[in-house]
Amino acid sequence: MFRQFSCRLIPFVLGLIPGPPDRRGGRTNAEVPAPDAGTVVDPPDRGDVPGWVLITLMTAGLVVALWALAGEAFTSMFQDAMNKVRGAG
Fold this sequence. Notes:
Elements (H helix, E strand, L loop, with lengths): L1 H12 L35 H38 L3
C-alpha cells in the first residue's frame, strides 16, 4: 500500500503529473486564455500546496532522522537540564 501511494505521490510533488482541474471552470491553468489588457483577473484561490507538503515531509523526516541518531543524547540532555532546574543535579 505504501509503495502504491509513494509511486503516485512523488511524481505529483515533483510536478511531473498535472494537478486536478480547476473547480470553477473545469480547466487547468494552462488551458485558460490570457486576459485582455482591460480585464480584471481574480487571484488564484490556492497557494503552492505541493511545496508546503514537501517542506512539511522533509522537516518531519529530519526530525525522525535526528531522533533516531541522537535520541539517547537528547533524552539525557533533557534529564540533566530538568535535574538542574529541580536542584537535584
